[in-house]
Amino acid sequence: MHIHDCLSLMCMSFLSWTRRSFLRDDRGATAIEYGLIVGLISIVVLVAMTAIGSTVRDDIFNAVSTALQNVLPADS
User: Fold this and answer.
1) What pTM does this model have?
2) Which parts of the chain span the membrane according to its record (predicted)?
């Protein structure tokens, strides 16, 4: 067996090991899954805040406005 054949065999063995290791490694997939979960939660929170935000804003504004009208004297 020549040195070139040995190097070729070692290179193929390394590539085979790297490919098997890459196929078994699921850390990247887990990170992507967590990213998708965070993205979906963010969308749900934004939709919920948009849906109830105007109602809360109007209720608080009306309460403060009414309280100020009751406390401050009316302009004559």
Assistant:
1) 0.45
2) 31-52
